Amino acid sequence: AHDYDLREYLERNWATLGPKLKGQIHVLVGDMDTFYLNLAVYRLEEFLTRAKPLADAEFGYGRPMKPHGWQPWTNAELMRIMARHIERHRPRR
Asked: Is the peptide bond preceding residue 67 cis, with omega within 30 degrees of 0?
């Protein structure tokens, strides 16, 4: 294994990574991804739904038949979502 498989890496290291990543994993993929990446996302979701500690991960699938590169928002909307997330989770002094 060369640590190219994110799911396998997370599963192998979940005891350490899980508490740090709780609520921080958000994955979007088209359900007909051009490179079949949706199949790997299904496997990642299956692992994270049974992982202990709980992952509280979020998955979104572009349906029906959305290809590679699908996203439900414009880039501007995505930047606003990310900025809100960063603000809510930034370290407090």
From this structure: no
Residue 25, classified by CB atoms within 10 Å of its CB into exposed (0-12), middle (13-18) or buried (19+), is: middle
Tens of pLDDT along the chain (93 residues) come to: 566 899 999 999 999 999 999 999 999 999 999 999 999 999 999 999 999 999 999 999 999 999 999 999 999 999 999 999 999 989 988
Signed CA dihedral, 78, 25, 22, 24: sign only:
negative
| Neighbour count for residue 18 (Cβ, 10 Å) | 16
What is the Cα–Cα distance from 68 to 34, expressed in whole angstroms? 5
In degrees, to the nearest 5, what angle opens at C-alpha 43 toward C-alphas 48 and 13? 50
Burial class, 59, CB count within 10 angstroms (exposed 0-12 / middle 13-18 / buried 19+): middle
Length of the chain, in residues: 93
Tell me which H or E stretch contains 61: strand 58-62
